[in-house]
Amino acid sequence: MEHGFPLPPGAVIGILGGGQLGRMLALAAARLGFDVAILTPETDAPASRVARQTLVGAYDDPDALARLADLSDVITYEFENVPAAAVERLKALGAPVAPSGLALAVAQDRVAEKTFLNEAGVRTVAFATVDSEDEALEAARLIGVPALMKTRREGYDGKGQAWVEHAADAGAVFAGLGGVPCILEAPADFTRELSIIAARGRDGALAVYPLGENHHEGGVLRRTVAPAPAAAALVDQAERIAAQILGRLDYVGVIGIELFELADGRLLANEIAPRVHNTGHWTQDGCEVCQFEQHIRAVAGWPLGPTAAHARVEMVNLLGAEAEAWLKLAGEAETRLHLYGKREALPGRKMGHVNRLSPL
Ligand code: AMP
Hints:
The protein is of the alpha+beta class. It is built from eleven helices and 17 strands.
């Protein structure tokens, strides 16, 4: 650590996590003249292969954290399950971390997240906390059925969730999820799933991208269409939600906010991801400044860049063996190919994505 904000080119950005999001952050950082240091438990991680330096170690390894703090002028993260204690330790070592530990804590626990959103004036589905089979039965009576039981922590891509169809089964569903702390959610009767990617700078400036319309398969994001067709009132509503969340978290960086659009036009917030987001990959080829560069600008204390779209984009994730079609995809004039350099194409694994462009 030797530089203050705004960080000059040549400063070092530390990233907790070595996956594809870290890789695309590192590429964006390099383009602005920064060096990147990665901390990841994996050897040969996707981000490591494009970064100046990698520390291989656990996220809670005190020596690895101390080395990262020593190397970096600012530290950020590319996934939200970094232990909160790791961020506390980095801060105690005097390293600036962005986004803050508060954003991480809120995003790590679905009950804290929905409570935070409601307190920030952002609507969500009704929910109840479930810590035992008895509470599961009580929650099902309170919320009604069907209802969706989710583990409070460490759920992703639809994992750690199960529907409660009959109130009497709620205890068994809770037990089936491992008996770990859960949340029971009322069903969102949505017509569309949307997301808004937004950023807040160190000076409090906001930048918001056009809405993305998201389509999932088996709990995993399949594709995003953006800018999503949306009336001005809907866009206003989404931008207000983003501003409320970012302001209240005193946030620095890019955030992804997943939304449900209801038939009556209201938006409910489902989840916040305190990082760059898969539903924002379209910005790489559809917007003036993409979400990855925007995040680097924000954490480095630079001015935020323009977010306007200059093309319509269909972003499609390449899962497992689908990435083997790289040569065909590379030959399509309207297609921009992004591959993550993962060595093994396990079924369902995110290996890359394409952005298919058409005129606005
Ligand atoms: P999540 O892990 O919360 O992002 O949920 C994964 C997917 O499950 C979402 O993208 C929705 O398609 C669906 N889902 C989540 N919560 C609800 C809910 N309360 N009601 C209906 N569908 C939901």
